[in-house]
Amino acid sequence: MIRPSFVPPPPIRELRELTRYRKTQIDARAAEIQRLEKVLQDAGIKLTSVASKVLTQSGRAITEALIAGERDGARLAELAKGKMRPKIPALTEALTGHFASHHAVACRRILCHLDFLDESIAALTAQIDARTAAFAPVYASLLPVPGFDRLTVDVIIAETGADMTRFPTAGDLASWVGLCPGSYESAGKRRQVATTAGNQWLRRALLESGRAAARTKHSYFGAQYRQIARRRGPNKAAVAVAHSLIELVWHLLSTGEVFEDLGEDYFTKRQDPERRARRLVAQLEELGFNVTLEAAAATAA
Fold first, then answer.
1. 181: β partners
2. Most buried among 12, 105, 247, 300, by the most CB within 10 A?
């Protein structure tokens, strides 16, 4: 098996440095948003009990008003925008807390840091876009894949150079990334263990994409995730989807084929009809029904 010993050419090394640093900035931004929510919660401001996120346009306006000295919950709620407007009564109650001066200091520093991180991420993205302009066919090939966005494809290019000739098979690429089952042997007995070590940057990007692909509707990857999650849990299901995604990357970039989703009914079509019927009958019987099966008459052509 190929191990992660690839030394890419200078342009790819430069790109890799930029994408990895951008990821650290994105992680820092996420941590700051969590810190902001924690400060607001400490002040009794339960913004996320009404809004799905703390740092929306409405959340930013409300936080700025709190820092400026506004404490009236009704006035703060009136700063809500768009879809948050119908929630003003609930917001009024959620925004009535005990926001103090030290909370204002912390929130101001957090918002300033977030603005700095946004600027840093934007500057890095501009540099990455300039260096990946020659990879337009790679983006065209991979962006239609569920769960993939431009950031993910940036990482795939930076970590692999988009050069699949280094990997004889899709399995070799999956092993290099660290998305193949490992094995442990002792006293002549072998058992499967966690996935093998590999390229942590690409592995993480693919796991995030795997979870995103699992949420897509009418997709093979969503069906794959649900089927495995029922039996083995969400984490192993996400790894399995990520494994499928990296193998798909190898096939698309190796053959130049256009992505076509196999569909959410892929696994249903592959099931043995009698076995599926028995499973459905068992489910109905668990719900307290008596089930009698009768074959449907064949329709005339």
1. 195
2. 12
Q: CB of 199 within 8 A of CB of 159?
A: yes
Helix (H) or strand (E) segment spanning residue 235:
helix 234-255
Pairwise CA distance, residues 81 & 226, whole Å: 36
pTM: 0.82
- Contact status, residue 36 vs residue 115, Cβ threshold 8 Å: no
Write down the pLDDT at residue 301.
45
- Angstrom distance (rounded) from CA 91 to CA 104: 19
Question: What own/partner pairs with CB < 8 Å and gap ≥ 24 does 22-31 have?
Answer: 22/121, 22/124, 22/125, 22/128, 23/155, 23/201, 23/204, 25/117, 25/120, 25/121, 25/124, 26/121, 28/117, 29/114, 29/117, 29/118, 29/121
Please list the helix, strand and coil fractions of the chain in percent, rounded to the nearest 5, in that order: 65, 5, 30
- Overall size of the chain counted in residues: 301
The residues pairing with 191 across neighbouring beta strands, listed in sequence order, are 184
First to last CA, the chain: 54
Whether residue 203 has pLDDT greater than 90: yes
Of 286, 226, 244, 65, which is closest to residue 147 (Cα–Cα)? 244
- Token couple for 195: 């996935």
For residue 192, which phi and psi values (nearest 5 degrees)?
-75, 145
Token representation of residue 173:
């690429």
